[in-house]
Amino acid sequence: VQLQASGGGLVQAGGSLRLSCVASGRPFSTYAMGWYRQAPGKQRELVAEIVSSSATSYADVVKGRFTASRDNTKNTLSLQMSNLQSEDTAVYFCHVRWGLTPGYWGQGTLVTVSS
């Protein structure tokens, strides 16, 4: 299993970015797919997770600003981020899991929001 994340970069506060993740190695339609992030000096935290084609959960701090989506036909996961703030600065990781197994992680993509 491989997860390749992309789309990170430097953006001004209030701006937008779209992250993408391509998963390969097996069909992932029955897997939960999600985004986590880790800011400097902080623990990795869940940003958004899509458990099935329509059941999505978000961290409270990103609700209304971030939208996660997936395309099971292409094994892709996306995260549209809007109204980015400095506290959104972090390395963003895509993650897939089947049931309660630990799952797999991508390599991460850095998002830096300048104020």
In short:
Helices cover 0% and strands 53% of the residues.
Structure, described:
It is a single chain. The chain has 115 residues and is mostly beta strands. Helices cover 0% and strands 53% of the residues. The chain has strands at residues 2-6, 9-12, 17-24, 32-38, 45-50, 56-58, 66-71, 76-81, 90-97, 104-105, 109-114. The chain is globular. It starts with a strand and ends with a strand. The model has no long low-confidence stretch (mean pLDDT 95).
How are the SSEs ordered, and which strands pair?
Blueprint: E1 2-6, E2 9-12, E3 17-24, E4 32-38, E5 45-50, E6 56-58, E7 66-71, E8 76-81, E9 90-97, E10 104-105, E11 109-114
Q: What is the element string, with H for helices and E for strands?
A: EEEEEEEEEEE
Structural class: mainly beta
Q: What percentage of the residues does DSSP assign to strands (E)?
A: over 45%
User: Ends: how far apart?
Assistant: 37 Å
* Major beta-sheet overview: 7 strands, mixed
Query: What is the approximate shape?
Result: globular
Which short descriptors sum up this protein?
115 residues; mainly beta; seven-stranded mixed β-sheet; 0% helix
